[in-house]
Amino acid sequence: MVEPKSPGNVGFTSRVLSNFGVTRLRIVGEDPRNESEAKIFSVHALDLLESAEIYPDLQSALADMHASWAATARAGRNHSVTRALVPLGELPNPLKMNGQVALIFGREDIGLTNEEIALCDLAFTIPVSPSYPSLNLSHAIAVVLYELYSKYAPEKPPELTEARPATREEREMVYHFLDSVIDELEIKEYRKPIAKQVFRNLLGRAYMTGREVTTMTGIARKLKELVVPQEEPNESEKN
Q: Is 123 in contact with 73 (CB distance < 8 Å)?
């Protein structure tokens, strides 16, 4: 939860997390755990509320996550790659690999900023009536967890694949080489950030394994070597 305004929503969210078997809550911003409203509305999930982790910013809260999926109600138009949203029903199975997946929800009034969404691997939206698209924060969290729980929660513990999920650092390495390639392409400058974001969107939705990302990094490095001019050695290096 990023800077929740209402301690009551934090309490309700703690209860909802317990309903669907989620045991970890991270809060970016002020610490609401000792607020009476949060404690009252958490009911029998007070232990989950009290164990919530507090972070100064979203980047630090996501540092050890393998994947991060941001909820937002503000979709961009067709040309907005930063707001290219995945429908809730098309989210990948978070239990596919033995990794840590974060669901990020923003402030009750303005949600998440573009900069915060850019830190995440993908952004998704909840289908609602256009006549009244605003959802209460804790209600939105309940809808998302119900969707994931009803679709993916196994009757018995899943047999995890041996493949581990890619880390944020591994994905960033792919982006680094792809960005270098795009910078050298003969396309208009204003299109380069868009192209870079498109690749981030594609890789973010894929929920890739470490092996897959390692292979992608090798390919991206070779592409960079093909398109990025190599510096000529100076005379001292030649000798």
A: no
Tokens 């897959």 -> residue: 212
**DSSP 3-state of 89:** helix
Confidence at residue 158, expressed as pLDDT on a 0 to 100 scale: 55
CB 81 within 8 A of CB 197: yes
pTM recorded for the entire structure:
0.76
pLDDT of residue 168: 83
- Which long-range contacts does 72-77 make (Cβ < 8 Å, 24+ apart)? 72/106, 72/111, 72/112, 72/117, 72/123, 72/124, 72/125, 73/111, 73/125, 73/126, 73/128, 73/133, 73/134, 73/135, 74/111, 75/125
Sign of CA pseudo-dihedral 136, 140, 143, 146: negative
Q: What is the DSSP letter of 88?
A: G
